[in-house]
């Protein structure tokens, strides 16, 4: 089962709030409302992920617009899986993930992005962070701070 993490729902809500701010501080844009409904149910149920199957159509459309603003691939053009490594030193994806990436659904790609960001042990997060910024058009994906 492919699922969307709550942090992606939050990011999509914030994207839409910036794109279509409330005119009066009370009313929400339809996209924000659709995503907020899903978010509220997740909070109520104390869930960190929501299944893609059964995801409300309008909320999914809003989420996909946000998804399209993200870099498509974590690749920084240093692929060690082509050298025989099981896990790429450059981006942190497994050999299988690198091979299947073009056919993956958006939610599957976000699962991989989340994992490699949390692990933060690939070169894209340390040794070649500047290169990652350049290849992603300025979008920075840094490792979360650990407490």
What does this structure look like?
With about 150 residues, this protein is mainly alpha-helical. About 45% of the residues lie in helices and about 5% in strands. The chain contains 6 helices and 2 strands. Strands 1-2 form a two-stranded antiparallel ribbon.
The helicity comes to 40-55%
Low-pLDDT runs of 5+ residues are: 138-147
Distance between the termini: 30 Å
Outline type: elongated
Main sheet: which strands, in order across?
A: 1-2
If you average the pLDDT, what whole number results? 87
Beta-strand percent range: under 5%
Structural class: mainly alpha
Largest sheet: 2 strands, antiparallel
**Count of discrete alpha- or pi-helical segments spanning 4 or more residues:** 6
How many DSSP E strands?
2
Radius of gyration: 17 Å
Q: Strand-and-helix sequence, N→C?
A: EHHEHHHH
